[in-house]
Amino acid sequence: MTAENTADNTADVKTAAADDSPLSALRWAGVVAVLRATSPDSALAAVDALVAGGVTGIEITYSTPDAPGVIAQVRERHPQALVGAGTVLSADQAKAAADAGAAFLVSPGSTPELVEAMLDTDLTVLSGALTPTEVMAASALGVHAVKLFPASLGGPGFLRALRGPFPDVPLVPTGGVNAGNLRDWFAAGALAVGAGGELCSSADIAAGRWQALTERAQAFTAALAEARR
């Protein structure tokens, strides 16, 4: 990815962030890297590598030690990035992420108590669902978008099928997304996509293979640009 393209993507995210819609910045980021690291330092190095490759949507999961601290540092190092917290499982985690400056919160499931706590932060909230019944339940709780997880179980065809009964529910598939099929996910109706192992694998992070992360980020960024044409 060229420096010019990186600048264009950054400008898009900043422009979208100024929009009134809670989901506008997420829509423009397009790809959200779901980051799981074994230490704060490795998480920060991974974010550096991803942003260098053009991926500006970053989800720091709570499986990463001191996730709120990492979120705060990422905001300082990469003000152009859209940084949120993932694997949020409690009200305390939601509040800590908000206090650290997270822009969005992601949970793997959708319990009423957790969703209420997440919404109370006034951040953009994505909660997890897979089946039509779960999508209905999450939507009824008032979340801004539904994280379709694990999306690998149904693929883009399943997402497209869900768009039939739920045309107005923003869906963000996570799991099974790679640079090769990213266009298919957007064609099926994804608002944005979450990518974990296919973009920032735990093995690469543990081994410090930062160039590999940058190259994958470049591939995802190029695929996103192609999907938007």
Q: End-to-end distance, in Å?
A: 17 Å
Q: Tell me the total number of β-strands.
A: 8
Could you give a short account of the major beta sheet? 4 strands, parallel
Share of β-strand residues: 15-25%
Average the pLDDT over all residues and give the rounded result: 92
Order of helices and strands: HHEHEHEHEHEHEHEHEHH
- Give the C-alpha Rg: 16 Å
Percentage of residues assigned to helices: 40-55%
Low-pLDDT residue spans: 1-19
Per the principal axes of the C-alpha atoms, what is the gross shape? Answer: globular
Number of helical elements: 11
Structural class: alpha/beta
Which strand order do you get reading across the main beta sheet? 3-2-1-8
